[in-house]
Every structure is written in structure tokens, then in C-alpha cells.
Amino acid sequence: MRRIGWIATVSIFMICSAACTIEPNPVPDAPAILFDDDTTSRTYGAVDVVGLSTRTLSALERRQPSNAEWQRILLVQIDTSGGNQNPIVSGEYSVFEERVRFTPEYAPVPGVKYRVRFDLRELRRLTGAPQDTTGVLDTTVVVGRN
Fold it and tell me: What is the pLDDT of residues 60-85, one digit of tens each?
């Protein structure tokens, strides 16, 4: 009789464990922008945003933003000091390997200044991701001359 009680207790525990999993506290986003300026790399010119939580990346994958929506989240421009009038660099956006990646359609031109802007507020608005952090990362990169 004790053996049946023990088996029932273990079975109930296993069922509750499977059905009642507790999600760990989400890791807040701490994004950083990486620009691949290595002309020998096959990803030359790619812009990566790393440091986003799995939760945020999953929400972004589910949303499948249009190109216009992507540009509101991650914008790459040729910096002519024209502010919002700077030409937009065309390319493809993706989420993979724990990062957001922009791959330009054409390789960057050495000596040209590029502006990269990542807007967490827009990311939150489009995906409904938690408001862990807010703000805009804005940086410029001058591709080296070879």
C-alpha cells in the first residue's frame, strides 16, 4: 500500500512540474551595435545589434516586420550630415543567432561615413515586447580605406 501512495505522489509531482513551469525572469535588453568593416569577411558591411533578450528577439520574429517597419527599428544611412534626409542604405533584415542583422545590398564604400540608428522604443511599439529599457542608439562609422 505504501508503494502505491509513493507512485501516486511522484506521478502527481511530475504532472504538476510539466504543467506548471515557471518562466525565469527575463533578462533586460542591453543592445550594442556592431559594424563588420573587415573587407575580407563574407559579412563585410553587415550591421548587428547584439545584447537583446531572447524574449525580445522572439517577439520580433513573430511580428515579421515589413521593410518600412525594420527601418524604423534599425536604420542604416549614408551620413551626409543631412539629418533625416540622409540616403537610406538598402538591404535585408533578419533575426538569427541571438542578434538582429542588417545586410546591405551593396558593399560599403571605403572612406564613406555611415550612420546607424537602433530605436528600442520603436521595437517595443511594434512587438509589444516588455519595456525593460528604452532609448535610441545612434552611431556613425567611417569605413576604412584599403
Answer: 899 899 999 999 999 999 998 766 68
CATH 1.10.10 is right for the domain spanning 26-142? no
Between CA 17 and CA 5 the distance in angstroms is: 18
Cell representation of residue 7: 507512485
DSSP annotation string for the chain: -HHHHHHHHHHHHHHHHHHS--PPPPPPP--EEEE---TTSTTTT-EEEE---HHHHHHHHHH---HHHHHHHEEEEE--S-GGGSPBPPEEEEEETTEEEEEESSPPPTT-EEEEEEEHHHHHHHH----S---EEEEEEEPPP-
Whole-structure pTM value:
0.75
Sheet holding 91-96, edge to edge: 32-35, 47-50, 99-104, 91-96
Widest distance between CA atoms in the chain: 82
Amino acid at 143: V
